[in-house]
Amino acid sequence: MTPAAHTITMLLADARLPSGGHAFSSGLEPALQGGLAPGDVSAFLRVRGRTTTLVDAATAVVARHVALGMASSREAPLATVVRAWAARTPSRAARHASRELGRGFLRLARNLWPDSPSIGAVASTAPRPIVLGAVAAHVGLDAETLVRLAVYDDMACAVAAMLKLEPGDPIDGVRLVLDACAAVDPFIPQLAALTLPDAIPAASAPQTEAWTEAHAASNRRLFRA
Length: 225
Description:
By secondary structure, this protein is mainly alpha-helical. The protein contains 12 helices and no strands. The chain is globular. It starts with a helix and ends in a 9-residue tail after the last helix.
């Protein structure tokens, strides 16, 4: 990648990015409200990393590939990638949360890169991994970096929320992020090689989805999801 792409990677991984991510907990608040013990957060993150996060990371990679090849009529449109993602995200509340995140991220991206064809092709209702893939295509992020960024962002978001939900030593949170990201490492080359919407893995997490649905109906929450 170019030096500029490396800088943008760090920017996108920064929790201070003004894209609305601070309002989400990557499913952790729903899990804790649903009965997950604080001591099981590490296991929760590892499972999320291999299910929901993995689907989103793969979606971002395929969206990147499609955005890079949009000049070719043989390439699938981004809407096809959105449909593939939605089919692999059974929870309506989870889809809604991702679209909210996508809206905030897309607003930021369009302000930073208003003339980008790949970002301009993203629908205003697109979920976050689609926006992330389009941004990666525009700024020159390679596929493996994109997977690592998507995984890190989801894990770090959950741990940042945990410090508000179950206050503790932030150093322990850093360890949780490192361990959760490491658990996904074996899958990164396979995910980075994906090019087709149909190849996005369908890794479901039924209990997490049930917690997310219950959380969406609750009026006692700090985070949107």
